[in-house]
Each structure stands twice: as C-alpha cells, then as structure tokens.
Amino acid sequence: MRNRIRVGVLRETKNPPDRRVAIPPLTGLKIFNKYANVSIFIQPSDIRCFTDAEYREQGYFLTEDLRECDILIGVKEVSIPTLIPNKTYIFFSHTAKKQSYNKELLRQIIKRNITLIDYEYLTTPENKRLVAFGHWAGVVGAYKALRARGMRTDFYDLPPASSCKDMAEIYDYLKTIQLKPIKILVTGGGRVAMGAMQTIRTLNLKEVSSEEFLSKEYDIPVVCRIDPDQYVERKDGADFDLEDFYRYPELYRSTFNKFTKVTDLFIACHYWDPKAPKFIEPEDYKNEDFKISVIADVSCDINGPIPSTLRASTIASSFYGYDRFSGEETIPFVDKRNVTVMAVDNLPGELPRDSSIDFGKALCENVYGALFGNDPDKIIERATIAKNGKLTPKFAYLQDYLEDEDEVKV
After folding, report:
1. Where are the beta strands (DSSP E) in 115-165?
2. What is the Cα–Cα distance from 342 to 297, expressed in whole angstroms?
3. CA-to-CA distance for 84 and 72, rounded, in angstroms?
4. Among the listed residues 353, 312, 318, the one whose alpha carbon sits nearest the alpha carbon of residue 19
5. How far apart, in whole angstroms, are the C-alpha atoms of residue 297 and residue 282?
6. CA pair distance 196, 299, nearest whole angstrom
7. How many Å apart are CA 86 and CA 317, to the nearest integer?
8. Which of 83, 88, 78, 199 is nearest to 149 (CA)?
9. Per DSSP, what are the bridge partners of residue 320?
10. CB-based burial label for 3 (10 Å; 0-12, 13-18, 19+)
11. Element (H, E) at 296
C-alpha cells in the first residue's frame, strides 16, 4: 500500500484578509475519489468563503493543529509565526521577483527546512501556466470598471462585487444597466483580458476593430480589444512580430497615445515587461484631447506602463482619483477633470467562491497527479523555490536578495 499523504488546508493569514481557498469542499471529495492514499484536514476559518459547516457536512475533519500533515496548502503568503518546520508548503509566495516585503518570509522558510512550491511556477514543459486566478481578475476588473463609470456619471448604480454571492449575481446586476454611447478599450489577449471581455459581453455591446474604434463615432456604446501589434511598433520600422516583441521588448516604442484621444473607459489586462515601452507618459494626460475618464488597471503594475496607477487600491476602497496635471492622487469622483483609477491587486478575492472552485479544479486536473504520485514532466520541481534548507538551482539567483541586509519593507 502506498504511503498515506496528509494534506492540511491552511486558514489564510495575510492582511487584508483573503477569503479564497485552494480546496473547496466538493473539490476535496474528488481528490479522495482519485487518490485513495490522501487525507485532508481543514484548519477552521471564520472568513473563508466556504464555511466550516460546509466542510463538516461533507465529512472533513477540522483541526487547528496541522503539525501531523505532510503538505500544507494555502492561497496567499503564510504568516511567519505560523510556519511549521520540515513541511511542504504550496502558496503564492511573491518572493521569486525579489519582492522586498517577503524577503524575511523566504529566509524563514529556508531556516526552517521548509519545501516551498509556488503556484506561479507550476507550468508545462513548454512554460504554460497550469493554475492561475487571472480569468477572475478580468471578470471582476471589468465589472468594477463599469461600476466606476456609473459612480462617476451618476447615470447608474452597481453594488460592490464583494457584496454579491457569485458571478451570476454580478451579471444579473449588469443586465439592468444601460450605457450611454461610450468607447471601451481592453488591452491584452490572455486569460485576464478574456475574463474582462466575458463580463462586458453580458451587456451585448457592439465589438469593433481598432481601425473602427479610432476612426468612427458611434451613437451606441462599443468595445474594442487590442493586442500588442496595435499599441507598439518596432523602433527601426521593421514589421511587428509577437515573438520578437516578447523576447526583445526594448526594441519597441508605444503607439498607444492615439487611443487616449478616443477612449472613455480603459481596462488594462495586458502583460507588461519592464523593458517594454510605457503605454502613456505623464505629459500625455495634460493634453486637451486626452479623453479617458476611467482607467481600470487590472494588471496593476506600480511604476509601470500607466502613470496614473500610483498604488494598488483595495477591495474595501477600490477607487482613487489622479490629477492629470499635477500627477498626484486625489479624492475620486469629485473633479470630472481627473481620471478615476481602479487598481485592486487581488480582484479574484471579490468572487472567492467562483474563483476558488475554478482554481481547485485546475489543481485537480493538472497538478495533483504530480504532487501525490510520479512527476515525469517535473511540474513540481520547476515550481519548487526552496528545499532541504536552501534555494533550488532554478531559484539560486535569489541568494543575493536573501543576503541583502537592507531594511525590509512591510
């Protein structure tokens, strides 16, 4: 008989609180059916989107003490005081890009001989991510963009996504509104952008090409989604090539400024490389023909391609204003000359049940076979940042980051 594997589902400890969970009740039952040697223990939580009672109803054992578990699974970073030595942890650690605020977390993981597997690096051999919340960031981000437009114009009112039970409820609310003739622009072509387009399509808006978006006026609301070939170009005038842009983004310059003159609502869902050109420059906001009134930066790159994204906002306080002329943050919805910014960096947390079910399903289908059994494609190995008290070879570049004694920002 194969060795028993005990999995502990962690209570989320990051602040502000996150209500998502990697193993919803019904997903756990599928794990039991597929892997007879796996048992699951649930740490109680009064904030989790699935209640303790829901887990008990399905027969789970709830316990505060997870020290007997082999694998501990969460969503966001784990509080340092709660780390249990010599265990395997799986969560989004936000350490592999040398994030200063999580330096001590990684130090303590290594010190305590913890094996750290990071969701972000669970990929196929072709480097395609196997699990992600990106789709739900787009779903919620587009809804919040439309909510901001309603609040700014006083033309309609939508409740916060976080007050809704699930995606079906927010879509029911969307179906009650009518937009005035505006132009909505979405950047990106991945999971995030497709999630945003799914939300926007509940309004049955006319979808137009970038050429039509730039050149035509409409007496109805329209939406346009654009890929990089429509907002950057090669500096040397060579033809655009997507693979070339991803490999050598520094060889390109932005052509996005033309969209600022015709767009009312901008939903940014693109991936951005720091070597790539910025979409907008601070001076662009000062132009008389700058038309964008709401920017929903779903990608939320601070100091990135969109200067008005001064900081991340929160689920509780999702919007802030940006003074187009001073470049400073202002109170939202007060001065119509300012840009309204939405830059929440944990958007899927506003639809925790839907996003948790989707995430748990992806883990079941793509990861648990490698985690609980054989791993011929090295899925777990590629995502393991620390093991046996040291960084793994793939993440050895983090050693100087760990040894840097500069003050850690929290």
Report:
1. 115-118
2. 6
3. 9
4. 353
5. 16
6. 12
7. 39
8. 199
9. 341
10. exposed
11. strand 294-297
Q: For residue 3, what are the CA distances in angstroms to 6, 191, 367, 373, 408?
A: 10, 37, 19, 10, 41
Backbone angles phi, psi at 321, to 5 degrees: -95, 155
Beta strands across the sheet bearing 206-207:
206-207, 222-226, 183-187, 265-268, 294-297, 339-342, 319-322, 329-330
**65 φ, ψ (degrees, to nearest 5):** -90, 110
CA pair distance 171, 193, nearest whole angstrom: 17
What is the pLDDT tens value at each position of the chain, 410 positions in all? Answer: 358 999 999 999 988 789 999 999 999 999 999 999 999 999 999 999 999 999 999 999 999 999 999 999 999 999 999 999 999 999 999 999 888 889 999 999 999 999 999 999 999 999 999 999 999 999 999 999 999 999 999 899 999 999 998 999 999 999 999 999 999 999 999 999 999 999 999 999 999 999 999 999 999 999 999 999 999 999 999 999 999 999 999 999 999 999 999 999 999 999 888 899 999 999 999 999 999 999 999 999 888 999 999 999 999 999 999 999 999 999 999 999 999 999 998 999 999 999 999 999 999 999 999 999 999 999 999 999 999 999 999 999 999 999 887 644 44
Find residue 265's DSSP bridge partners. Answer: 184, 294
User: Kindly report the CA angle at 299 between 153 and 320, in degrees rounded to 5?
Assistant: 40
Delineate the domains of the chain, giving CATH numbers in brackets: 5-131+352-403 (3.40.50.720), 134-350 (3.40.50.720)
Which residues have CB under 8 Å from 225's CB, separation 6+? 185, 186, 187, 188, 189, 193, 197, 207
Cα distance from N-terminal residue to C-terminal residue, the chain = 46
CA–CA dist 234, 248 (Å, integer): 10
Q: Is the pTM of this model over 0.70?
A: yes
Helix and strand numbers, DSSP H then E, in the chain? 13, 18
100, two tokens = 């200063």
DSSP state of 335: -
> Which tokens in the block code for residue 320?
């802030």
Bridge partners, residue 409, by sequence: none
**Residue whose token pair is 């740490």:** 43
With tokens 């969209």, the residue in question is 259
d(CA 177, CA 391): 52
Q: Distance (Å, rounded) from C-alpha 25 to C-alpha 244?
A: 44
